[in-house]
Structures are given as structure tokens and as C-alpha cells.
Specification:
By secondary structure, the chain is an alpha/beta fold. The chain is built from seven helices and 19 strands.
Length: about 325
């Protein structure tokens, strides 16, 4: 599923920044041309967070033919550590470090049928895929899920472009997505591409597996920021390194361990590649797996977790603060 390119950083300049939905801004950035961005591409940008610099990834909604103009859309997250707030504060003329389009969510053209499933801001990863499929005359359905239309970017534009192939599921309008029905509409020749909240994607993955459909035909990209529980502070211990530190609500386990002097391997920081996995020795609380690398069975064993996105939550009724002890090879 991954065909990741090496990032090449360059100084980009904001060309425009306009609202396209509640708490969503469409931002176009000019950077040295590298060719048109392929469907499913994203760019990394450097953003200031808490006095330091961090990296955020945003899907490319569209680009011009030579790739010198890249358009992304950014959701302002209420519990953000500051990255999305910074992006929303950008104005034309502002400069920021940005990579060329990177690819780890490629579209395979040539399948008999496609289902594209977008949850909320996940539409940014799938909009260009849908446009390409329409252009090549493919058989496809674009299912777009949201709480309310005011929060769903590009609804009008997508409806004009895709017509009846766009199927909206809006909670506020009494038309939520029926995951079982969606999966029943697929067969062994259908490829399903999805991007959205982890609860949505986990439900689809489980239903897809139960239906006996080919695992290779289910492809996805995740935000790596949504889980089953609200983020809370928890303690992490690594006895072999004599490390114990608290993971704040506004940082990841990977960041906390790095801050404590533990050198770890990592790459995607979205719970997709598995490079940052560590073994769990013991846990006080409930592991909140937010990755899409481990299978449901592997997550259920609680033997490992992706430090870049996963957390620990207080177990109901325990009265004990959450904590986890990890082993580093």
C-alpha cells in the first residue's frame, strides 16, 4: 500500500486561503514545480508548535499541471496542539517549508468498480481520486459522511461534478452511513478507498473482513489523531532505559519518549507504517489503539502499540491513573 517518496523540502508561499466549510480552510501554496500531484498524494509542512517545530501532513486536493500550485484543506481542530491554528492563520504572501507531493495512498486505475468513502475532512484525500475516476469513465461511487452540511467541504462542487455518483450521509439530516449496507454493495472485484475518523474506518475494516472480501481491495489513509477515548495524561515507563515520564494530552507517546531522551525509529507518524511499534510489558488502563497498521486481532492482544498515535485511557471504575510500561528491543 505504500510507495513513499523521500521528502524534498522547499520554501513555499501562500497564494490564497479561504473558508470552504465550518472550521475548514482551502489553502493554495506555490512551491518549485515537481509535476502534477497524483491522486492520494499529500504534502508535509513545518509548523511551530509549543516553541518548537513539528511536521503536519495534508492531502493534496488538487494541483496545477506542473505541480507548482498545490491546494490543501485544513480542519481547525479544537484540541489541536497549535498546528491547525497556525495553518488557519496563514495569509497570502506568508512563507512556510513544504515538501513536494508525497504518495502513500495510491489509486490503482483499472478495477471493475470502486467505492470511495470519505468521513469529514477525509474528503481531501479522495476528491482527486473521484475526479480521475470520472475522467477515465470508471464505475465508482463516492460516499461522503458528515455531521452536518455546513461542516462538509466541497459538497456543492462534488455534486456538480459527480451527480448521482455522489452519495451523502449527513447525520443532522437523518441519513447516517449504514456500514453493513455499504460493504454489501461491494463484491470481490470492488476496490474500496477510505479516509476518515478511526471509528468509521475500524467499523468498515471489521465488516469487510467478516464479509470475506479480499483484504488487498480495502485501502485507506488515516488522520492518526482520533481514537476511542478522549486524550488524557498517562505515565509511560521504560525500565531498561530508566525512563519514566508523563505523556500530556497535547503530545504523543513518541514525542514524550523523545523528550525524555529515548531515541526511537519512526516514519509516517500517522499509525500506518508500523516502524515505531513497541512491545507492551504491562498496562494500567485501556490501550487506545489509533493506528491502522495492527490488525484488530493484534490490537486485541495488547502486546504492542504504535507510539506515534496510540494512547492509554483510564479503565472505567479502576480509580487508578493510566500508565503503560514498554520494552525497547
Amino acid at each position: 500500500m505504500t510507495t513513499q517518496s523521500l521528502p524534498e523540502w522547499a520554501l513555499g508561499q501562500v497564494v490564497s486561503s479561504v473558508p470552504v466549510a465550518h472550521d475548514v480552510r482551502r489553502i493554495t501554496i506555490a512551491r518549485p514545480a515537481r509535476g502534477r500531484a497524483a491522486p492520494g498524494s499529500h504534502v508535509d509542512v513545518r509548523v511551530p508548535v509549543g516553541g518548537a517545530t513539528d511536521i503536519r501532513s495534508y492531502s493534496v486536493v488538487e494541483s496545477d499541471d506542473d505541480g507548482g500550485l498545490l491546494t490543501i484543506s485544513v480542519l481547525r481542530v479544537p484540541r489541536s496542539r497549535g498546528g491547525s491554528a497556525f495553518m488557519h492563520g496563514l495569509a497570502p504572501g506568508d512563507e512556510l517549508a513544504v515538501t513536494q507531493p508525497l504518495q502513500n495512498f495510491p489509486l490503482r486505475v483499472g478495477a471493475p468498480r470502486y467505492v470511495l468513502l470519505a468521513g469529514g475532512i477525509g474528503i481531501t484525500a479522495l476528491a482527486e481520486m473521484a475526479r480521475v475516476l470520472r475522467h477515465v469513465g470508471a464505475d465508482y461511487t463516492l460516499a461522503y459522511v458528515g455531521r452536518g452540511r455546513e461542516r462538509m467541504a466541497y459538497v456543492v462542487e462534488l455534486a456538480e461534478l459527480h451527480g448521482e455518483r455522489l452519495v451523502l450521509h449527513v447525520d443532522a439530516e437523518g441519513s447516517p452511513l449504514d456500514v453493513a449496507e455499504l460493504v454489501r454493495s461491494a463484491d470481490a472485484q470492488t476496490e474500496l478507498y477510505m479516509c476518515g475518523p478511526i471509528r468509521l474506518m475500524d467499523a468498515v475494516r471489521r465488516t469487510w473482513q467478516d464479509a470475506g472480501l479480499p483484504p488487498a481491495n480495502l485501502r485507506y489513509e488515516t488522520f492518526g489523531s482520533s481514537g476511542w477515548f478522549e486524550p488524557e495524561e498517562f505515565v509511560v515507563r521504560v525500565p531498561q532505559r530508566h525512563v519514566e515520564t508523563t505523556v500530556g494530552t497535547d503530545e504523543t507517546l513518541l514525542e514524550a519518549l523523545t523528550r525524555a531522551g529515548v531515541d526511537l525509529m519512526y516514519d509516517c507518524r500517522k499509525g500506518e507504517c508500523g516502524l515505531c511499534l513497541l512491545d507492551v510489558s504491562c498496562v494500567d488502563g485501556t490501550l487506545d489503539h489509533r493506528d491502522v497498521f495492527l490488525s484488530a486481532d493484534q490490537q486485541a492482544t495488547g502486546r504492542s502499540l504504535a507510539t506515534c498515535v496510540s494512547r492509554v485511557a483510564t479503565r472505567a471504575g479502576s480509580g487508578v491513573g493510566p500508565a503503560v510500561e514498554l520494552t525497547i528491543p
